[in-house]
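A favour, since you know our C-alpha cells better than I do. Could you add the entry underneath, on a fresh line?
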Amino acid sequence: MMNIIDLTKQEFSNNRSELRKEIINIFLKESPGTGKGELTSRYNYIVKKKGEQEVYLKRPAQFNNGFDFTLNVSNTNFNPGGRATTRPTHGNIIDDLVQKKEVNTKLYDELKEQIDKIYNCQNPNKVEFDFGIGIDSEILLECIKWLFVEQDVTYWNYSGRAMFYSAIQDI
C-alpha cells in the first residue's frame, strides 16, 4: 500500500545538519513493513506541486541504503527515447543546465545564483526563469534541492551535496 504524505507546507531548516535530521525524523515515523511485495510499507512524500506536476520523494528506494530515497517528478519523463522514468538523474540536471546556459548566459547566471542559495540551504528568492527549453525552472530548482538532500543523507560522512554541486560549478 502506498502512503502519500504532503510535505509542501513543511518548513525545513536552513542548516544542512538540521535539514538532514528533519527529513530522517520524518522517515522514522514510517510504519514498518511486514514482508516483501504488497507487505512492504511504501511512502511518497510530496515536496512541491506545480500544475500537473508533483515533485516527490519515494521510499523505500531500491538501493537498500537505509534512509535512502529517490526523487521523482510526476508527469515527466527524464529518459525520452528509452525506458520512461520519473526520476531525474544528476546527468539530466547537468544536461538541462548546460542547455540553459547555451541559450541565455545572463539568465543562467541568475539561475545559478539561486542554485548557490539552495546549496547553502537557503530558499531561492526567484524560481521562474523563461529559457523556453528544458525542465521548468521551478521544478528544476526543487529537484536540485532534493538531490542535494539525498546526497547528504546517503553520503553524509563523505562530501554529501558537494559532489553534485561541484559538477554544477563545472558547467
About this structure: The chain is about 40% helix and 15% strand. The two ends are 41 Å apart (CA to CA). The chain has one domain: 2-169.
